Amino acid sequence: MKLLFDFFPVILFFSVFKWGETHADSAHALATDYLSAFVSGGAVAPTTAPILLATVIAFAATVLQILYLLARREKIHGTLWMSLGIIAILGGATVYFQNETFIKWKPTILYWGFASVFLISSAFFHRNLMRMSMQEQVKLPDPVWERLNVAWIMFFVLQGALNLYVAYTFSTSTWASFKLFGGIGLTFAFIIAQTFFLAKYLEEEPK
Fold it and tell me: Please, what sign has the CA dihedral across residues 128, 160, 158, 15?
């Protein structure tokens, strides 16, 4: 459920974008009615309507995530605030300039931001973020925690690079599909691989 919650804005982004592609006239009319005041020149181009609507919806979904957690008085992790800040800046630029390039960079900046936080925390503050988040559930030797932390840093770096490769090699429609299915699929695959990696250490725990 948490993974579904985390990917909620991405799911809405994909859904709205695909709807806009298949309902071009309706998407253009909707974007014209609600977004014309926020775009440079005051006129929404028909070809950009789907990406503009999807971007605005993804931003709104991220805000709703934060409001939901606030209402439940749950902790809002820094990663969610980071995501909100990035989509506010890059999404705003996408809408104003009607340029999809900005929003295409959002996943990469987010992934590389995660990698930077993990790396800086470990290298300069001697804080292993993976250990801090998982040590109540599992007990592992110190070297394994370090390898796990490095593995996540590498995963985030590669995810960011892969996003740019897809964004600049294929169509925006293909990128939107990859943003959802590729992001979720690769994350699931990495978590499963991590589980197999950790299994032997968990089995060695004294009973």
Answer: positive
The distance from CA 38 to its chain's CA centroid, rounded to whole angstroms, is 24
For the stretch 46-70, what's the b/e string if a residue is b when 16 or more beta carbons lie within 10 angstroms of its beta carbon?
A: eebbbbbbbbbbbbebbeebeeeee
CA pair distance 107, 112, nearest whole angstrom: 8
- Tell me if residue 72 falls in helix, strand or coil: coil
Question: In angstroms, rounded to a whole number, what is the distance separating the alpha carbons of residues 119 and 21?
Answer: 39
**And the tokens for 147?**
């390898």
pLDDT tens for each residue of 24-71? 999 999 999 999 999 999 999 999 999 999 999 999 999 999 999 999
What are the pLDDT digits (tens) for 124-169? 999 999 988 888 788 888 889 999 999 999 999 999 999 999 999 9
Give the global pTM.
0.90
Q: Is residue 65 within 8 Å of residue 80, measured between CB atoms?
A: yes
9 closest CA partner among 80, 78, 73: 80
Phi-psi region of 141 (alpha: psi -120 to 50; beta: other; left: phi over 0): beta
Angle between helices 49-71 and 24-35 (to 10 degrees): 60
One-letter amino acid for residue 205 of the chain: E
- Per the CB < 8 A criterion, the answer to whether 140 and 198 are in contact is yes
What pLDDT, in 10s, does the model give residues 59-108? 999 999 999 999 999 989 888 999 999 999 999 999 999 999 999 999 99
Q: Where are any strands of DSSP class E within the chain?
A: none
The one-letter code for the residue type at 186 is: L
